[in-house]
Amino acid sequence: MIPVSSTRWLVCQRDRVTLRESTSVRWSTSIAGPSDRVTDGAILFDGRSVALIAENRAETVRHLVVLGMHEPIVQHRMQLAGVDALRFAKLRGFALLYADKRLLVVDLRFGRVVKEHDLDGELADLAIDDSALHVALRYRNQDEVALLAVSTLLTTRSRREADLAAPTIVAPAKAPSEDPHPPAEEQPPAEGPSIALGSVAALAPRATVVATT
Question: Looking at residue 52, which CATH number applies to its domain?
């Protein structure tokens, strides 16, 4: 059960989500398959949306589902592959994910990752405030808690971004050797079929890095 206000709350039973008011049911919908169940969630944007974690224990698959509160319309659905921990910034509408020694900041309004940050070690726990101003990190085998401003996190380039931004050097193609005795230039015929030209050496194409989501 997730409280929305003093008179409204969300009731989650397996894959079904119901918005109840004090004397009636506002709406009820299913957000996953019959074998899935909602295990966690948070109200976003002062009650305009809700983020829910739907888990299929048989297939060990979890999904993050963003649902509208005025009408039960699924706004975004993301599979949480390899995610070890997830925290919500409810007012800002951010989700902070920890996976494979990396932090991922997801903007739930648009359903996309806005930042990846590499960590120096494994985390034991993490937290983010509702306004997404600061992140608290506690590393394994350490008692101290590290505080990180989200504004700094968003502007710091990760090692992966630095690798993608590194210039790619492509050696130019060798120019064709000059013939010391070039043939005499021939004039094209006035009429008749066109003459196909021989191949001309061109510069090698520049390597392209395609980002995948």
Answer: 2.40.10
Apex 98 CA angle, 95 and 103, nearest 5: 80
Can you read off the two tokens belonging to residue 190? 């006035």
Q: Where are the alpha helices (DSSP H) in the chain?
A: 150-155, 159-165
In a domain, 207, yes or no: no
Residues in the chain: 213
pTM for this prediction = 0.70
129 and 115 belong to one structural domain: yes
Segment 37-61 mean pLDDT: 90
How does pLDDT run across 136-148, given as a tens digit for each residue?
A: 999 998 889 999 9
Domain range for 88 is 82-163
b/e burial code for range 169-192 (CB count within 10 A of at least 16 → b): eeeeeeeeeeeeeeeeeeeeeeee
* CATH number of the domain bearing residue 126: 2.40.10.480
